[in-house]
Specification:
CATH class of the largest domain: Mainly Beta
Radius of gyration: 22 Å
CATH topology of the largest domain: Immunoglobulin-like
Number of domains: 2
Largest sheet: 6 strands, mixed
Oligomer: single chain
Length: 176
């Protein structure tokens, strides 16, 4: 049995196929030009032991180590744990315009972190540490929310970045 495709239909198939190929080419060229690539920080962690302090000083995400600290390289590090249905700590104070490294791990299920009107948008996969370096430029309270459905109380999972002028920001132990 012969299969017949009308001449006009063939033409539209070629046009649509060409548009799809051109779209792929534009996307690849744009990604190469702007040096865009998927996150490459693949660092595993045992989610079941995330909050437990072991050894001197405890693990990175133990209760004593979460929050804002100055890293060995001098950059601010913010460590947050995402667990149903909250972020810990829920409130984080940061200086305006200073680049910080956010490291976040999920205790239980897939979560996300999104700060509206900024470039801070991460997926938090259990068993891995998600990391991004960014800065918040607007002074004031900036909410961050979970953008991956994580269960019935997902809508109540949020935190707050309190951004203060850089000259008013101090960490405990750094002095006034």
């Amino acid at each position: 049995m012969a299969f017949h495709v009308d001449k006009l239909e063939k033409r539209w198939i070629y046009i649509i196929g060409g548009l799809v190929v051109m779209t792929w080419i534009v996307m690849v060229m744009g990604a190469a030009r702007d040096n865009l690539h998927p996150p490459s920080n693949v660092e595993g962690i045992d989610s079941a032991r995330l909050h437990l302090a072991e050894g001197v000083g405890g693990d990175e995400f133990s209760e004593d180590n979460i929050g804002v600290r100055r890293g060995d390289d001098g950059m601010l590090e913010v460590r947050i744990v995402a667990a149903r249905y909250g972020f810990y700590p829920q409130r984080v104070t940061l200086p305006q315009g200073e680049t910080f490294r956010l490291r976040i791990a999920a205790f239980d299920v897939l979560h996300g972190v999104y700060v509206p009107q900024t470039n801070l948008n991460l997926m938090v996969v259990p068993g891995y540490i998600s990391e991004i370096e960014t800065a918040l430029m607007e002074v004031g309270e900036q909410p961050y929310v979970c953008h991956e459905f994580c269960g019935p109380a997902h809508a109540h999972m949020f935190g707050l970045f309190n951004v203060v002028p850089a000259d008013e920001f101090t960490l405990p132990g750094e002095g006034a």
